[in-house]
From TrEMBL:
Protein name: Prenyl transferase
GO molecular function: metal ion binding; prenyltransferase activity
Plastid is among the record's keywords: yes
Family: Belongs to the FPP/GGPP synthase family.
CDD domains: Trans_IPPS_HT
Organism superkingdom: Eukaryota
């Protein structure tokens, strides 16, 4: 379900529609192949959850909810950074499909996909600098470093069954939650709120982001091709240990065996998925996601937000309802 079709994001539907149009203009490149590669992924759509949350925080922190042009641009920058990271992730993880279409590196080449990702990161940096707000630049630019940190951590621990839930959460922060947290803080900064409120929205975004990643990882186990837009079990295939698998390993010795041989046999992935489903791994992972959602709600409860408070609260329901 896309935010543009969800009542949670009703107040910002016009902003999200404008965002989709602006993204095409913002990624225009002089080289037609680079443009085609970037457009390929944008055309496939996506959840747009990151810019949606950015816009909701902007509405919550401005007088009479009149968000600024800078807020809209920050939301667009957030989506460009996210898309750039997907281009690189798909190469690293050797994904064949993304959002239901062939990945850029499969459609074009690995070289083009990497260059397109670099191009989008460069474009986002240029637009970020043009916000003319040094503190926002510092906050958002740190995210790109976090992405690299997350990928390195993940790459060094592939198929490592000693990974703990704390290790997993830390990696998930770098790979997913960092961008959402930073964009929430950035939106509050552009609204010229005080430092305490900026920090609260950062923490809110962090926990929403962690919950979002955990739910994504659950869907990789229990979802199907149509829902995921990619083949289920992709994380397993690449040796990425996620919450459902980590919890399931506590109960299944056979799962340890399959992981140790790195799912080499043709049916190992399907076997592993069935084993995880037989344990309480998925349920424990969902409980973990709900814990982070509850933490984000407690932060909202500490303040009396304005007329979009319901939308900010409903973001949590949107995240969890992706399982239904």
């Amino acid at each position: 379900m896309s935010p543009t079709t969800n009542n949670t994001f009703f107040n910002i539907q016009n902003d999200l529609s404008a965002l989709n149009k602006n993204l095409q203009k913002m990624v225009s490149a002089k080289h037609p192949v680079l443009y085609a590669a970037a457009e390929h992924l944008f055309h496939a759509g996506g959840k747009r959850i990151r810019p949606a949350i950015t816009l909701l925080v902007a509405k919550a922190t401005t007088r009479e909810s009149n968000i600024l042009a800078e807020h809209r641009r920050l939301a667009e920058i957030t989506e460009i950074i996210h898309t750039a990271s997907l281009l690189h992730d798909d190469v690293i993880d050797e994904c064949k499909t993304r959002r239901g279409v062939a990945t850029v590196h499969k459609t074009f080449s690995t070289k083009i996909a990497i260059l397109a990702g670099d191009f989008l990161f460069a474009q986002s940096s240029w637009y970020l600098a043009n916000l003319n707000n040094v503190e926002v630049v510092k906050t958002i630019s740190k995210v790109i470093t976090d992405f690299a940190e997350g990928e390195i951590r993940q790459g060094l621990t592939n198929f490592d069954n000693t990974i703990s839930i704390d290790n997993y959460i830390e990696k998930s922060y770098y790979k997913t939650a960092s961008l959402i947290a930073a964009s929430c803080r950035g939106a509050a900064m552009l609204s010229q709120t005080n430092i305490d409120l900026q920090s609260e929205f950062y923490t809110y975004g962090k926990h929403i982001g962690l919950a979002f990643q955990i739910i994504d990882d659950i869907l990789d186990i229990i979802g199907n091709q149509e829902i995921l837009g990619k083949t289920p079990g992709s994380d397993l295939r690449n040796g990425n240990l996620t919450a459902p698998l980590i919890f399931a390993l506590e109960e299944s010795s056979e799962l340890h065996y399959l992981l140790n041989r790195e799912f080499q046999n043709e049916n190992d992935i399907n076997k592993a998925i069935q084993l995880i489903k037989r344990t309480s791994g998925v349920e424990k992972a969902k409980d973990l996601a709900e814990e982070h959602i509850q933490t984000s709600l407690q932060i909202l409860n500490n303040k009396n937000y304005k007329n979009v408070s319901d939308a900010l609260y409903d973001v949590s329901n949107y995240v969890l309802n992706r399982l239904s």
